[in-house]
Every structure is written in C-alpha cells, then in structure tokens.
Amino acid sequence: MYPTTYHKPETLEAASATLGDAEEAKILAGGHTLLPTMKNHLAAPTDLVDIRGIAALNGISEDGGTLTIGATTTHAEVSNSPVVASACPALACLAGGIGDPAVRHVGTIGGSVANNDPAADYPAAVLGLGATVVTNRRDIAAEDFFDGMFATVLEEGEIITSVRFPKCDLAGYSKFPNPASRYAMVGVFVAKSGGSVRVAVTGAGEDGVFRHEGLEAALSANFSPDAVDGVAISSDGLLSDLHGDADYRANLIRVMAKRAVSAVA
C-alpha cells in the first residue's frame, strides 16, 4: 500500500475540515472496497478519514412514517433492528442477505450507497423505496443520486450522513446471489404505496441500478406474481460476463420479480 495519513475525527465538522485540507482524501467506513483497492495499488489517497467514530452518523429511528438510518450503521444492525423489521421488513431481509456475517458486521449502508457497486443490494432498496440520501450539504432524491456504474452525484468532500426511507404499504426483495461473493447477479426490489408500484433492479444493468417501467405498470394494475408473466423483459443494456449473459439476466429479472411479489402479495 502507498503511504497515507489516517484520521479518526469525532465530529462531522472535523471530518469535513480534514477532507477539505487534504490533497487527496478518501472516506473510510466499512472499507470493503477502498482497502482492497489500495492494496492493489488502484488508489493512493494521501489521507484516510475514518468516520466510524462519529456518533451522529450511526443509529436507526422511525418518525412519522419515515425510517432514518445513519450512514455508518452496519448491515447487521439494519438486519437485526426491530425498528426496521416493523417499518420495512423487506429492508431488514435485504440487509441480512448481504455477504457473510463478517461483512455484515463491518460494512455500512452509507458506504454501500456511496460506492454504488452495480451488484450491491442497498441501491435497489434506495431506488425502489424512493429514499432520500442525506449529506452534510443537501438532501438528494434517489432518482437523482445514482449516476452510472460506481458513480453518484456526490461532490468532493461531501459526506453521506443518513438515508431516509418513506413508508410504503408492501415491499419485497429477492436476489439471485453469486455463490462465492453473495453479490446480486440480479436483485429486484418491489415497493407498493397505494395504487403505485416501484420496481428497482440491481446486478443486471450496464449502468448499475435502474427502475423497470414495464414491471411497474403491470404490478400497479395487478399486484400479483402472475402479472409479471405478461411483461417483456428486454436484454438490451444488461450485463454479460462470465457469470451470465444478458439474456440469462433478463430471465432472472422476471424470476426475482415474481419471488419478490410472492413474498408479500
């Protein structure tokens, strides 16, 4: 690894100041992507700003139908939280299926959302539920946050502080995991609020997470697994790699959508 200076600020203000003063700083939360990248000499930040000790960035609360999860809250904490289980069981289920116990007890929701891995689980929940990503500078709607594979609209020095999930009537998530990494080869998050349904797909798109308008229209008209059968799932714009080609992933989108709906319909 290249030489780097490690910082562990106790406040959000101190973290922001350190990021602003450094030549090329990176935020460290769970570190599951950043540290391997540094070990392989693909990144060489002059400074690492560890935000895990900032109390204001951790925790789970529910108020007025809005579920708020702090950025440094781990996947295990989300999975095991009675607040999340009551407000949105599908989100707790999603978090419990990320990686293995070692990953779930270190990885954070903020780090996952900021990294925007095209096969990560949380982006599907953020987009599927129409969540708001809150930073130290602004509130960003899910529709505006993701900006392509491994890319977001976060600016230099901007820190995610929490993610706010609005209440929905029903939600379900199903994924086909890679047997080694547990990353989603395809994951589908379905959320129903009133007569409207949102469907977000992860693991399949060349540009990362996306909404599927055809599935949304069909499920808004008839929220049942059978409604999925009549939807055309195109392979255009889907990933093809050694794990599966675009046609295979298109079929998986249908299968995972039916399973997600079946879990809650």
Q: How does this model look, in words?
A:
This protein has three domains: 5-50, Uridine Diphospho-n-acetylenolpyruvylglucosamine Reductase, domain 2 (2-Layer Sandwich), CATH 3.30.43.10; 55-166, Uridine Diphospho-n-acetylenolpyruvylglucosamine Reductase, domain 3 (2-Layer Sandwich); 170-262, CO dehydrogenase flavoprotein, C-terminal domain (Enolase-like, domain 1). The protein is globular and about 55 Å long. The protein has 265 residues and is an alpha+beta fold. It starts with a strand and ends with a helix. The strands form three sheets. A five-stranded antiparallel beta sheet has the order 4-5-8-6-7. A four-stranded antiparallel beta sheet has the order 9-10-11-12, with helices on both faces. Helices cover 34% and strands 23% of the residues. The chain has helices spanning 12-21, 34-39, 75-80, 82-87, 89-96, 101-104, 109-115, 122-128, 142-145, 213-221, 225-229, 246-262, and strands spanning 5-7, 25-28, 47-50, 60-63, 66-70, 132-135, 139-141, 160-166, 170-177, 184-193, 196-202, 210-211. The chain has twelve helices and twelve strands. The longest helix has 17 residues, at 246-262.
SSE topology:
Blueprint lengths: L4 E3 L4 H10 L3 E4 L5 H6 L7 E4 L9 E4 L2 E5 L4 H6 L1 H6 L1 H8 L4 H4 L4 H7 L6 H7 L3 E4 L3 E3 H4 L14 E7 L3 E8 L6 E10 L2 E7 L7 E2 L1 H9 L3 H5 L16 H17 L3
Parallel strand pairs: 1-3, 2-3
Antiparallel strand pairs: 4-5, 5-8, 6-7, 6-8, 9-10, 10-11, 11-12
